[in-house]
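Practice problem: Prenyltransferase
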Amino acid sequence: MLAPSTIQLLRFHFSFFLLPVYLFALSQVPTINTAHALVIFFILHVLVYPSSNGYNSYMDRDETPIGGIKAPLPPTRQLFYTSVIMDVVAVLLSLFISYWFAICIIAYIAASRAYSYRGIRLKKYPVAGYLTVILFQGAVTYFMVYHGSSLNKTLLVPPAHMVAASLLIGGFYPLTQVYQHEADKKDGVVTISALLGYRGTFIFTAIIYSLAMGVLAWSFFSRGEQKKFLALATMMLPVLVYFFSWAGLVWKDVRNASFANTMRMNIVASICTNLAFLTLLIWRGFE
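Answer key — structure tokens:
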């Protein structure tokens, strides 16, 4: 039986924040293999993402708030073994999708471990850690979902969408670190947010998010799908409203770069982005 700390630190709810890339990729697949799409959802959101969260918590042993948890419980050895078992199951299930998909899953797990493992600890390097996260949670995940969910297992995945997926993650990720500067510093970690500073984090986020929307605009307009992009952009407006409102508060007092405000940003951004890409997925049924 899993201990309460193990269940908490796997952070299953955090998978919701990573769901937009899955929905984005699925909404663009020409012909979907529904069974494989469901298996891929299970592999990523029930196994790989929670396992990555658990392993990271096992290595970090956080005593201050972390993504989605205000008061993390102390991790046990059970959490480590559980994360390993989940990874093994994920890889075995991946083989039923395709060898390319399985290779990507193995690469994702390896990158996740290198990010957290004390012997390598990519997360303590602001640029290397940041690039690792946005590459694998963005472009690689988009590739996996698009390839694995396609009926013919195509390798011809739209590069512009892979770039956009990484940029969307890249514009979101530094904000999840903005309240952790002091805790990370005590652990010898310098995140991209700590490197940029409080104000710099918001400026950087605005730039990367603008680039993401620019790439999406170019992609959709070049295919004559202006209405889809406008729908997408409209549904993301609440994200901009909250972002600039929060940025204004931080500009006045950096104490507003708090865990509570970060979680609100996460929730607003995730709900709006998930709804936007889910709308594009549903839109397919009316074409």
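Discussion: The CA atoms of residues 90 and 257 lie 36 Å apart. Students who identified this feature from the tokens alone can consider the problem solved.
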